[in-house]
Automatic annotation (TrEMBL):
It comes from Cajanus cajan. Its main location: other. This is Oleosin 16 kDa. GO terms for biological process: lipid storage; post-embryonic development; reproductive structure development. Keywords: Lipid droplet, Membrane, Transmembrane, Transmembrane helix. It comes from the Eukaryota. GO terms for cellular component: membrane; monolayer-surrounded lipid storage body.
Amino acid sequence: MQAQAHRPSLSATFLRRLQERAPHSNHLCGVLTLLATASVLLILAGLTASGAVLGLMVFLPFIIVSSPLWVPAATILLVFTAAFLSVCGFGLATVAALSWMYRYFRGLHPPGSDRVDYARSRIYDTASHVKDCAREYGGYLQSKVKDAAPGA
């Protein structure tokens, strides 16, 4: 008698393939957590929008009647707030600039000092080049004046 190789049944093979394809439990928990969180946030967004619309409907007559008081007050508050924040910002920028200049002149090499040194050397080189060109051109003009008016 020949020994038959043990072949798994069709249902066992199907179950094994199904288990291989099934998502892992941590993926399933992640998807369920995502769905629950999205549902809660969607409900909260709906409640917030509904509350805002209902509040606007209830308080709109009061807002319209008292708007001659609110508009100037809001304008004045906006102007004072903008002025205060601007003064604070300019003051902070001034302090930062003065601190940078102090460190630069003390030789502490603050960030960006290499660019300032490079710009200073470029300006000096350009100025000396312009000065040399002016001397050459001035000499050229002097010779032309002497050619045009020999007695001058």
